[in-house]
Known about the structure:
Structural class: mainly alpha
CATH class of the largest domain: Mainly Alpha
Helix content: 55-70%
CATH topology of the largest domain: Four Helix Bundle (Hemerythrin (Met), subunit A)
Number of helices: 10
Amino acid sequence: METTQREFAVEPIRATRTFEAATEHLTEAIERAGLRRGDRLPSEGDLAVALGISKPTLRQALRVLEMSGLLVVRRGKGGGIVVTSDLVPAVAISSRVALEESAAIDTLRARRILERAVVLEAVETASAADYGELEHTVELLEGHLGDRGSVMRADAMFHRALVRACHNATVQAAMRGVARGLAPLRDAYTGGLSSDEATLDVHRRQLEAMRRRDLAELDRVLDEHFRMLEDAFAAAIGRDAEELVRRGR
C-alpha cells in the first residue's frame, strides 16, 4: 500500500532547547510527513531556524538519530540529511539519548578537574599580554550582551585565552576535547540576558582574582562558574546537580 508523503515541517521548541527536545521534534516531524528510506530532510541551517535552536544543538540531535539508524548525515557537495529506515527505532534513540547525557556528565566532571588546573597554572605563567587578551574577551562579552551568538563566541574566546596563558601545547590539546563537549551544552542549557550578565560578572571576578593571585577567592569563583552550567543541565534532565558531578569529592 502506497503512503503519500506529506510536507516535512518541524514544530519550534518552546521549552528548554536541548538536543533531547530536538530529537523528539525531528522524529515526530519525520513520522507526520510520512518520510521513507531515501527521503531527504531540509538543510541543517533550515532545521536549526525551524526548531529555534543553534547548529551545535541540532548536530547533537542529528548525531543521536544517526547513531540510532534513522538518519545519515552526508557532508560536502551533494550531501544532506537522509532517512535510512522506514521504522523509527524508538528504543535505540532512547538509548542514544542516555549515552549523550552520560557523555555530557563526563564532560562536566572533566571540566571541573581540568579547567581548574588550567586556571591555577595560568596564574603562574600568564604574561601581561595574556592578561590583556583575557581583558579584551571580557570587554567583547560586555559589548555584545543581548546578542546570544556573539556572547557565546566571546565566552569561548575567554576560555581559549586561559588555556593559551598556560603556554603548554599539551594542555591546549587536552582542553580542545573538553571545549568541543561543552559547546553544545552551553548553547542548549544557558542563555538569556540574565544568564549572559552572570557569565560576564563571573569572568570579571575570575580575572580579578587571578591578577591578585587570591587562590581562595579564585576557588570560590571557579566553583560558582562551574555550577552555572551544571545546575542548568541537571535541572533540564531532572537530576540532582550535587550527585551529577560529584561536587567537592
